[in-house]
């Protein structure tokens, strides 16, 4: 094979990590996201008055489907088989936000952090989409990993973040 | 985490079933579908006279490809690795229909029923698409599970349905 | 270019129809599907007691998403931009079935029949998936085109089909 | 058609908005996101020392590809043809964050807000993925629409948000 | 917005070309590919003796489907609506190769060169896949653009390449 | 089941090979491709002067993402979980070509040859896309399997092909 590296190839480091010899293990990842909105927007969601329809179920279905295609979105992410995805919403009617918590499990050689984070982000974006006709100022924030377990790097739990 | 559930969240039940602790096992699912059509349409298919081309091979390729993306279509369906997909057609030239039988196998924590049903449905829809220029009255029916084996719920065989 | 056709190429007819010189027009297609089930299954859906969660909203979201990827499922189907997708359910508590009606619109060179039929089929398959833990005997049937308008072939309306 | 609505169908509102009769117009949407990280993490990115490789180009490619599949992620989002996607990064080495600005254009019946927001979110998630081996505490925040133009609702510009 | 570019951002040039103000026009692109193989392999294909089944129809369906998802494969490629895709095969039984010619048409702001090239490449890869059990030495070569028309850059025709 | 095969079904052989009872094993496949171009084109790539941006990193990201969706492109290909993907480029400034070498690993019942070949082909097509504005004569060639190991058929190494 010709190998005349007279030039540095700027792509040389990019690669999908080799996990061939990693052990399969049960893995859980939990991620968090928040959608801040106007008082009227949150009330419209809670009273199911958004013209596009049932906001939260749509967001949840979108999040679960997105978790399954994470490796198609995040370039260096391994494609893995998920064994469980769930997404929950809670509401703060004083500060007017929806809090999203996504849980993803798998049994495999790599963790499910990106799947959990992607599910949370897509749930948030779907809420935005369903409500943007009445509120373009919504803001998605605090997307982070809450905890993970399984795998060689073991347990991680985000420190007191509130 | 803020948890002020002053409102019922109508999405609260939707989730992908947790199969993390299920055992891997060999699984087979066989599904059925039927496409009813005009006499001329069936004859045109059998004599390979449809303008769009080879109807049955196209339908079969479509069905096999669809089986592989079932989890991208059916929201709560787990993404699994299939070990075999096959689709067969038989013809009734008296009652003018094509019968579709799809077989899907996998080794995993969940069954392949939805994959077999999706393959059968997409084969039927592809036949419709290839022939719709000459027959808009075609009807797809009798999509059901013929049998499954493997997994905790064990064997299932549809009772005498003919 | 070498062109020694000593053999018949059995694939020679398969192709995506050339619509380059067709006019853009507003098009509507309406499709139908039915899911027959046990009495208990329909009642569990209507009372929102299915363990996997909200069956109908999940089926509807799945159907709308599937309509958008019809051309990725049906090989010879053109990829088009949809301008509207809606799916409605009605229930027959005597004969125990759910009836699905999907409406798809676009402005383009080809109709949206396959999109409407695919949406109806995927809605039906999603209902099957959500309920299969309690009822494996469900049957999907009567998938057909109810009506279409727009395009050169003009109006089509299924004749008295009941 | 049978229409015995003895029960409320909780999915009845969910639908993709009908834009059939909207005019095509040139549309631009600009979205924003931020990834907060440890000082070491930002320095490793800027000095191209992340083991997985070139973080920013990978994030940008991911963002552009994600913009094109937004309608496959956000259920009620129309599938549209994009005419331009670009993503830019800027760095704050004092507060240790990367700022993402995505611009999406199209000529069509609906805006590109969701495409711009999705591009920004996926760029941020890709940065997270590339760096998570050295920093699990990264946080994605301030995902919002900066501005949009085109379409019936006209101009929108986020008010002085800093 | 913070803009402290103390570092060069190596991703700064990557973007999808802005075609917002380009005119729609009818465009055609024709691409070429060749698969070289053992004599026995070509004969097995022509006599339909490959265990995996009908090689050429499967390759053609794969190619047509791939053309439609080119923008999902080639990062900076615009997503466009195709109006026609066709793929033809010819055989050279002396030099033992299959020649592939793919034609793609669209009406839009960008050409369909990448779609035609992707169709040709995927047809070739599918032939490889179907036959690899009997011949691992197959080689795909001569993938190039034969001609294109439409758009501002006008006609292109590959010069006498044989 | 009705089985009146009065006609030969031309699709009868097409199927995805049954690997249900194959053993999982570690598998590696390495593929090769080459892109021939004008001297100016190669120099523009090496000096990072292509208007669309960083050619090689974009090609590499595209290749890695394509490897993961091989089973969505090649109809009879099994969907498998990859454990590693890498792509390297080398340059020949005398004969003016880029050589691509892709390596794919998995632990499973089927090999990763098609994934490696698809990665190489998509890397080549992406290089074409990024440079086609300045050079339409580029040609992709020499796509073949360099080596594979693992699985029942064991080792394969292409014989001295240069």
TrEMBL record, chains A, B, C, D, E, F:
HAMAP family noted in UniProt: MoaC_B
EC numbers, comma separated: 4.6.1.17
SUPFAM superfamilies associated with the record: Molybdenum cofactor biosynthesis protein C, MoaC
Keyword Repeat: no
Catalytic activity: (8S)-3',8-cyclo-7,8-dihydroguanosine 5'-triphosphate = cyclic pyranopterin phosphate + diphosphate
Family: Belongs to the MoaC family.
Entries under Gene3D superfamilies matching the protein: Molybdopterin cofactor biosynthesis C (MoaC) domain (3.30.70.640)
Pfam family, any one: MoaC
InterPro entries cross-referenced by the UniProt entry: FHA_dom, MoaC, MoaC_bact/euk, MoaC_sf, MoCo_biosynth_MoaA/MoaC, Mopterin_CF_biosynth-C_dom
Described purpose of this protein according to its UniProt entry: Catalyzes the conversion of (8S)-3',8-cyclo-7,8-dihydroguanosine 5'-triphosphate to cyclic pyranopterin monophosphate (cPMP).
Keyword Glycoprotein appears in the UniProt entry: no
Keywords, alphabetical: Hydrolase, Lyase, Molybdenum cofactor biosynthesis
Name by which UniProt lists this protein: Cyclic pyranopterin monophosphate synthase
Subunit structure: Homohexamer; trimer of dimers.
Molecular function GO labels: cyclic pyranopterin monophosphate synthase activity; hydrolase activity
Organism: Pseudothermotoga thermarum DSM 5069
Known pathway: Cofactor biosynthesis; molybdopterin biosynthesis
Active site: residue positions: 129
Any single biological process term in GO: Mo-molybdopterin cofactor biosynthetic process
Binding site for substrate: 76-78, 114-115
Superkingdom classification of source: Bacteria
């Amino acid at each position: 094979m010709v190998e005349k590296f007279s030039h540095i190839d700027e792509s040389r480091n990019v690669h999908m990590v080799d996990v061939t010899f990693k052990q399969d293990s049960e893995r859980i990842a939990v991620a968090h996201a928040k959608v801040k909105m106007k008082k009227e927007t949150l009330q419209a969601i809670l009273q199911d008055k958004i013209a596009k329809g049932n906001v939260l179920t749509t967001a949840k279905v979108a999040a679960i489907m997105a978790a399954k295609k994470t490796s198609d979105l995040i370039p260096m992410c391994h494609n893995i088989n998920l064994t469980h995805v769930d997404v929950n919403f809670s509401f703060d009617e004083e500060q007017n936000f929806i809090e999203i918590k996504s849980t993803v499990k798998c049994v495999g050689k790599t963790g499910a952090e990106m799947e959990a984070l992607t599910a949370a982000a897509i749930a948030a974006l779907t809420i935005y989409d369903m409500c943007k006709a009445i509120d373009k100022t919504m803001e998605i924030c605090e997307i982070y990993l809450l905890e993970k377990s399984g795998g060689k790097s073991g347990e991680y739990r985000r420190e007191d973040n509130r």
